[in-house]
Amino acid sequence: MSAGDLPAFATGLAGVPGELIDALSAPLVDHHVHTSFAGPVARAEFEECLNEGSPEPVPAYMTQFDSQIGFAVRRWCAPLLGLEPHASADDYWARRTELGEEAVARALLPAAGVRHWIVDPGYAGDRVAPTATLADWSGTPCSELIRLETLGEELLASGIAADDYPAAFRARLAERGPQVVGAKSIVAYRCGFDLDWSAPSDAAVRAEVRAWAAATGAATPRMASPLLSAFGVHAAAEAGLPIQFHVGLGDRDLDLHRVDPMLLLGLLRQPAIQRVPVLLLHCYPFHRQAGYLAQAFTNVSFDVGLAVNYAGARSVEVVAESLEMAPFARQLYSSDAWGPPEFHLLGSVLWRRGMARVLARWVREGDWGVADAVRVVRMIGSSNAERVYRLTT
Amino acid sequence: MSAGDLPAFATGLAGVPGELIDALSAPLVDHHVHTSFAGPVARAEFEECLNEGSPEPVPAYMTQFDSQIGFAVRRWCAPLLGLEPHASADDYWARRTELGEEAVARALLPAAGVRHWIVDPGYAGDRVAPTATLADWSGTPCSELIRLETLGEELLASGIAADDYPAAFRARLAERGPQVVGAKSIVAYRCGFDLDWSAPSDAAVRAEVRAWAAATGAATPRMASPLLSAFGVHAAAEAGLPIQFHVGLGDRDLDLHRVDPMLLLGLLRQPAIQRVPVLLLHCYPFHRQAGYLAQAFTNVSFDVGLAVNYAGARSVEVVAESLEMAPFARQLYSSDAWGPPEFHLLGSVLWRRGMARVLARWVREGDWGVADAVRVVRMIGSSNAERVYRLTT
Amino acid sequence: MSAGDLPAFATGLAGVPGELIDALSAPLVDHHVHTSFAGPVARAEFEECLNEGSPEPVPAYMTQFDSQIGFAVRRWCAPLLGLEPHASADDYWARRTELGEEAVARALLPAAGVRHWIVDPGYAGDRVAPTATLADWSGTPCSELIRLETLGEELLASGIAADDYPAAFRARLAERGPQVVGAKSIVAYRCGFDLDWSAPSDAAVRAEVRAWAAATGAATPRMASPLLSAFGVHAAAEAGLPIQFHVGLGDRDLDLHRVDPMLLLGLLRQPAIQRVPVLLLHCYPFHRQAGYLAQAFTNVSFDVGLAVNYAGARSVEVVAESLEMAPFARQLYSSDAWGPPEFHLLGSVLWRRGMARVLARWVREGDWGVADAVRVVRMIGSSNAERVYRLTT
């Protein structure tokens, strides 16, 4: 294979075996992603997306392009928009504006090499496109997740009687469409993980909903009750749904030290929860703890999505650190992209590149056989997700 | 030296100086190990041993061979059983069965290149061989540890009067045989480290034993009292024994976040404890914290055993991370092998290989002199343990 | 450029682009440093300085030179004193003694290639030289920090009336000389970070000072009041001063797990604090958490000083890990040297070397453009500090 034939993710890396490049070139299942922007964004908004942690405007003394993820956008996305790698931020922005959001998305989304997206439609849905648009622009089928806190909030906003809440919640989970393949909890953002994870009685749920409704009044409801989060998770498990948890890295609304996945032990030890897959998302900087949990519980898997994007050139080490304690059957690929279609692309390029660099070294030095490396790529890249979510595409 | 002359641990690594290979080829002291299986094991049981965290059977959707440690077994142990490196799991299992447990052990244990084992005989002793068998099969002398929680449980099971417990506990420590070179605490598994570490009065111990006996009744006693654990540790210190603590990585019975070694500060700051060596075992993912404690306390040393085995090809980074804050006089080698003799071998191969790759780079790039590298290998590989445990072999 | 022309920090590294070497050769701003020894030190005292964590003498069974920082001293400082790299500890000590403290300092300090020191004059000031001496011996201008806990202790020692404390504290901050460019808190050493960070009322401060004075009596006052620390930090913010916090690694007086920077969230979320720069110092082993905070808060920056020195050859990975989540505009260089002028030199050599190795690889493999690498070096090496502290030199 000549250098010119190498896929982008492998450029500049020495001695990656052809079989490994082929395996990494195969389409991925991105098991946790959001859709991309519905329409034009201003540069300020785009730059804010290059920062996961801060809700503030980028300060005048800097550009957020001066970050690992900003450099990665200029390196890996620029060529797909007809620019040189490492094009300047200004040139990148000019070209992006010239093309428009849909053209950018249509250039970047298919290049991610994903054959199935599992979409969390629940975050800031007014700013991003519907799932169908992602499917259209990327040419790739989508499944969806149901966000547990959002479901509770929708019920409350609908004016439901507190007494009806438990049954209605369960009914909504039972009546989910065929496109829904899992549930997601963002309890990390609401109260952290250190809560009483036992399954609350329906009576307790009703009382809590009553108090919540009273406190909310005419305002938009926001579920921040540990008890209702625990109820939602148990209801999802009863419904037989795989349950995703936002873990670790996120915006500063959350207390990072309260979303160490070890604080989920009280939940994970319950037999009722062990009957469904549990997926720990992102996990940085607790990805080693997540890997340990994925070893210790046969129903737990994890990914290092989101972190891989923000770590940019350092993503190779984040990927490497994820390959320690967890059996290879319990790791998944995700981008956790939201907003800029650059992120859908970057997640896939950086994960493939990290795997290529790490696994090629192990193969070259004799620690792993190349056939094993190929198999692990397939497991983490797609087949584990197919098993967990029972995907048929 | 031609490639064919290289010891297994150095194969595939470029530019490791001959002096360093020689130093790493010298026999090790494995300061914390268990014995290997006494007799035949089924494949299911063997695969469960490839997972430290989970007490569950390996689920049907996977083989536990698909993990770093599983790959490492196939890579490093297969050739010693007459197979090719990376032999398939099925071929490996067939060959292993054909040979039988003793022949496998006799092939792998001596190949570990260990000249002294310090054995913890206290875990699941009915499933593994007696210490004498390890000595026989490996051709290597053994010392032993006395497990503090087990000692307390034996006393209670013997029907001792609560009033006699403190003196009897101390007497058992004093009357230990010459083969006993240290004590071990698994308080990590019983209540974590965040407890009152002050030395309890004998009166308090007696009252606690009384309560424990009453609660235990006719059942097999299990010591889970923080006070009795603190008593045991103080008694071991009074007896002048080096004290090992299980830290970090273990099965999911423990709360990993409650066995961060920093939570031992209240113990380590006590002058009574500072008079004996304290050894922090395994420590992953808190090995940086352990290295810091080994810097901060002149009587504290640590190792990254167990983690090195489970990390497989990633063990090089675990070893590298252990070489940061701690003086080189306060780091030890251990495998923490238990059960499969594969683990006794793997610990040594992976530690040697990790040291070879890390130190060779520092020598090659000029950060370290080769004589220093050789000396550090000797310290961590054997001489520190000889000093700590006053070994004379 | 021939090998002979390479600056010391780049020796032995393959393929570092000339532009990157040039950028790394440019003078640094060391934004947190102490002065070096005022006069002769004994070898025992010097060796104790090679250990940050322990207040104890180095035990007889070892030399503290057998550590990463000890090896780094022999590697990088020996040639500047006319010895071979890796000179033995005994030879190094003999040469050092022969030269005397001032000559050693005059050889090492200018070689650090620093063009501005920001000095914390507050620790063990009787053992180290005044700031003016550092400026003289290094030929480099200095600014200073004002230590908040020390200021409080000076006020109490002066016999101030408790009622006057709040105003006097503020007045001292307001009347600082032009050489003072920031404040520093060592609350890490006094009570950790998990405290009530709301701004206390002056009445509450007065009551606390009254209690503190009563408890102190004739003794030298030591501020260990969370409330007074919070007051000091808020007063510094009111005065518009950048505020440094000791975070992570330090001597064993502190509880390392209580100085995880995440425990500062309650402070960092306050608008009053967000109006001034906050600088997280050292941070090891929590530097990833610090990087996250520097992403999440536009006024937060961090460094990995101190840790870089103690990690020696491993500093390259500490530097690499610091280049993940934080925008490049929010990272600074510091040595946190104190005492041996070796540390002023080492900080700069190891940081430059780490950056050279890490960034050269990214450039070589195409992840970063060389112009970006050069720019990031300038930002972290000097221009960010100039902006944060409004330096004009």
UniProtKB/TrEMBL annotation, chains A, B, C:
Domain Amidohydrolase-related, chain residue ranges per copy: 232-391
Signal peptide span: none
Protein's recorded name: Amidohydrolase family protein
What the entry lists under InterPro entries is as follows: Amidohydro-rel, Metal_Hydrolase
Pfam families in alphabetical order? Amidohydro_2
Identify the species of origin.
Pseudonocardia charpentierae
Q: Where are the transmembrane segments?
A: none
Top-rank taxon: Bacteria
